[in-house]
Amino acid sequence: MEIPSKYNALSVENKWYDYWMKHNYFHSTPDEREPYTIVIPPPNVTGVLHMGHMLNNTIQDVLIRRARLLGKNACWVPGTDHASIATEAKVVAKLKAEGIDKNDLSREEFLKHAWDWTHEYGGVILEQLKKLGCSCDWDRTKFTMDDDMSEAVIKVFVDLYNKGLIYRGYRMVNWDPEAKTTLSDEEVEYVEKQGKLYYVNYKIEGSDNTLTIATTRPETILGDSAICINPEDPRHQNLKGKKVIVPICNRVIPIIEDDYVDVEFGTGCLKVTPAHDENDKVLGDKHNLEVIDIFNEDATLNSFGMHYEGQDRFAVRKAIVKELESLGQIEKIEDYTNRVGISERTKAIIEPRLSDQWFLKMEDLAKPALDAVLTNGDVKLFPKKFENTYRHWMENIRDWNISRQLLWGQQIPAYYYGDGKEDFVVAETLEQAVKLAQEKTNNLQLTTKDLRQETDALDTWFSSWLWPMSVFDGIRNPENEEIKYYYPTNDLVTGPDILFFWVARMIIAGYEYKDQRPFENVYLTGLVRDKQRRKMSKSLGNSPDALKLIEQFGADGVRVGLLLSSAAGNDLLFDEDLCDQGKKFANKIWNAFRLVKGWDVSEGIEQPQSSKIALEWFETKLQKTLIEIEDHFSKYRLSDALMATYKLIWDDFCGWLLEMIKPAYGEPIDSTTFKATIAVFEDLLKILHPFMPFLTEEIWQYIEERSPEEALIIAKWPASKPINEALISEFDFAAEVVSGIRNIRKQKNIAFKDAIGFSVVNNENVASTFDGLISKMGNLNSFEYIKEPIEGALTFRVKSNEYFIPMEGSIDVEAEINKLTEELNYTEGFLKSVQKKLSNERFVNNAPEQVVASEKKKEADALAKIETIKSSLASLQ
């Protein structure tokens, strides 16, 4: 086959991905081999490929491809997450654009629109992953809303409820007014925001006196139930037992006493709004206060908001401050920096809200998962530093709010048969629920029509925490062949931002339902940032288009660019130049292959000793690098593993081996050397394949015609052989000698085609193993071992060894004298001009100190150079 002069990544990538898919190389079924399993962190079904996905999935593909080469039964399960909040928001926006209000639709009608959206956009990100080269078992693609996946979720909910671990409670929750749903504590981000601290005067009932409270949220005044003072605060002893009048609404509320109040903050008087602050709710319960909820679900004010009803909370804040000022009840306003909770998904400011929700008790469930990471090491985190974060979260775990006020998701399997809080049953199906309701009420007349299902859906994480089990049907059919073979999985690659959301919860679920860890190793990648260290995001416009990068640099180039600077757990400062470096690396390998395949091969030539020893050296160098690569992989230092591979190919193979074995111009290469070089090249392709799958498969198939059973993707990792450390050490010394010869040739303009003599005083007692190679690489016509230095010869040292190149016959003495004389005259003229400037007192006294210092340095450098030139001239004359 004729080899193209240039490597065309785009045509190559499509060709080989189709080939791999056609021959089913990605598919895995249980057999006698050792399994190696990865489950993908399922991206949002509505998502598109961004740089974080690129990094995460490149790492997974490297691990899975290497496992195949090691002879393991490699299984990488892909899939997507239904992402309740994000997807529902997109569907609602689409409906709004079409003039449809979600609230006008039945659940069934809305879900039809959601499924239509999912079917239209749901496969986009998985198709993009194929462009990156991801070798997932696409036959196993799962979606968290698939029927079997949903059945597993419902089954687990019912089981946990029956174990007494799930309960329904009226609690203060994190409310997202944009998504109109509750969020778990872990889905709330806290940010610093510049706000105001408002000092408001409340009239004391039956008096002209006032007290002052400080608040950051004056709009919640309309929900006040009490004013609280610290009973030990000397400033407020006169307020005990009195009542105050709430501004604007003129409601009378009591002054209560509790040591919860911080006497150092504000005025020492605390307004208590039990419906809108978690700590206030605790105070309200303790003192039996009225609960007044002033907000609608979208954070507009309800009827308790009086003339502000229907207005947004932040608009009301401005308006109510103006009204309070007009009433003379604002004492002062100060700037104030506050930590504000925002929704991780919508970025809306969270509103604390009292609501009936479903919770999962976590304290006992978390213990085995805590031990797995921190005590017995069953699950290992890479890098280890994240263990502290894990410990903090798990030791301070709170009950998990698992209900969401959404339509898209698994509907909670609770069925109500009455109006009381306890008038419900929990069952996997409506039919089972009817039977349970009949038993609970002792009313056999109840039918399906008498039951209504809970409208809330489950938190998306409540489905994805089962992912390593549910993708193998391990919840519904816990003893099936696949779950027993593939579970527990081996490696999980994800970001530290979901260490608790997802990783910890999967570990919890694994021990609860399989009494086993779900995976052995967790590789936590860093965040991808731009050169200014900003997190890449659509809003900043600093995230490149993933597919355009692949088009510009090739998938292999992008993969190398990402991996070269992605140490585990450390943020990656992404620069497109890294992808260009990856592209250049691909071209370097392609050109090396074309060079080797371009040589004429002769069966009748004996292998030169220099080629034999060069190949022996490279083989042992390759073996040593393999051990280094294995060590990097075992510690999940993939960036280091790639760099070791990069250096082996670029420096040792292309830079040294090919130079050492290549035949003289116009001459053929002996077949023994050629075959050994091809074998070495094949081993390099195997090592490089996990990182650059397309380029390596292309070259592999060009080397010779191969059957599908001989494809590189399923080849065998290079076999281990003994390492000859002495040979590596001897070569490193010889390489320095060759560099010394090349430096002298460059300095003295001795063309490589001109052979030169060479002598060495071997003070280091270096073996003569590589003398033949030194002669070839240096184009030496003689190589002598001598006892004494040669006078007048060109010389250099490697350690204590002295090397000599006789000038006679090596250089054109007359031309060298002329060149040095010309350089001497120029340098002496330059020195005079500098010394003239320095002899000028006005210049020395008036010029800036650094300018004078610079001129003095020029003088010293010129003097040193003149001395060197004169010494060189003396040796030539």
Reported for the largest beta sheet, the result is: 7 strands, mixed
| Helical content class | 40-55%
- Here the CATH topology of one domain equals Isoleucyl-tRNA Synthetase, Domain 1
Count of discrete alpha- or pi-helical segments spanning 4 or more residues? 27
Number of DSSP strand runs: 31
Radius of gyration: 38 Å
Unreliable runs:
none
Based on the coordinates given, report the CATH architecture of one domain.
Orthogonal Bundle
Please state the overall shape, judged from the principal axes of the Cα atoms: globular
Strand content: 15-25%
Q: Output the CATH homologous superfamily of one domain.
A: Isoleucyl-tRNA Synthetase, Domain 1
* Overall CATH class of one domain: Mainly Alpha
Decide which structural class fits the backbone: alpha/beta
Q: What does the average pLDDT come to?
A: 91
* Span of the ends, CA to CA: 59 Å
Q: Quaternary status of these chains?
A: single chain
What does this molecule look like?
- There is one protein chain.
- By secondary structure, the chain is of the alpha/beta class.
- Helix content is 44%, strand content 16%.
- Among the domains are: 190-341, Valyl/Leucyl/Isoleucyl-tRNA synthetase, editing domain (Isoleucyl-tRNA Synthetase, domain 2, Alpha-Beta Complex), CATH 3.90.740; 546-723, Isoleucyl-tRNA Synthetase, Domain 1 (Orthogonal Bundle), CATH 1.10.730.10; 727-805; 813-876, Helix Hairpins (Orthogonal Bundle).
- It contains 27 helices and 31 strands.
- Strands 7, 8, 9, 10, 11, 12 and 13 form a seven-stranded mixed beta sheet that branches.
- The chain is globular, with a radius of gyration of 38 Å.
